[in-house]
Each structure stands twice: as structure tokens, then as C-alpha cells.
Specification:
Elements (H helix, E strand, L loop, with lengths): L1 E10 L6 E7 L18 E11 L4 E10 L8 E7 L2 E7 L5 E9 L7 E6 L3 E4 L8 E9 L4 E3 L3 E3 L17
Amino acid sequence: GISQCSIYYKRFTSTEWTLIETKQLTNDGIISVVWNTINLMDGNYDIRVSLKNALNDEYIKIYTYTLSNTPPAQAVLQAGAGNLSVNLSWTNTDSDIAYYKLYRSTEENGIYRFINKFTGTAYTDTGLSSDKTYYYYIVSVDEYGNSSTSNTVSVTPNYVDDVPPVANAGLD
């Protein structure tokens, strides 16, 4: 059976392969390899997987991978006050956004809590207080895992008492 796996990469236009890692296979045949791409240029890369058995016979498979280390454009976040709520919407010019993460704080420079993850571009945050100002920002994450942080917005929700008053007439 296969006993060793070596993984290499090269830029699509290059002829020189660079070793990522060589590992001995375990009994289950599963290995995990981390490829540090931080200092590599965006573009197409060939990934070569070389498998060897105990007799040193080699089996090679080549895959093409598109690398992007470029963060997406920053989303532009807008907020409006609602009745004990905040209406948020955002835009982003990148076409490869996988999702957005929304964060909220009650202090501008305080700790921001993760609210939710979205693929859409609008959200209404409900159950808030009209005597607090809330601060929000969005993190855009592209399909390659790169991210960028939006502007921060602040808004104080309204309180609209929509229950009509009741008069006690004639109970004297």
C-alpha cells in the first residue's frame, strides 16, 4: 500500500516545484497538510500530490488551485432607528462574498459581540432599549476566507408608544 505522501506547489507559469510537506501515511490513510500562502501572489497554482509505496513506486496527481489573498472591499454599513430596534443594511462591490458577520456593542470602543452570520445585506436587530446607543460593524468574508471590516455606525432606537390611552369615564 501507499506509505508516503509529498505535496508540492508551483505557480501556474513556473516549472519549479516547491515542497509543502512530506508525511508518512497512517493506517487510516488520512493526512493533514497546512499550506502557508501568506507571501504568495494571487493567481493559479498547480498542486502535485506524490504518493509512494514501500517499493518506492510513485503515483502522481496534479490539481489546479486559484489562490486569492486579497481581502474583499469593505462593506458600507448604514443604520436607521426603529421602534426598540435598529434597521441595518450594507453594500459591497465584491462579487465573491461568501457571507457577512455582524457585531454589536453598547460602547464605541467597547467589546463587540458577534450577532449573526448572513448571506443577505439587511438585518433588523430587535428587542433593544431606547435609552442606549448601539454600535455596529460588518465583516465581509470572501469565498477564499479573506475578510475586511466595514465602517462603524451608531444609532439609538426609538420608542413609540402605539397603545392608545384608556380613559375611565363615569366611574365616580
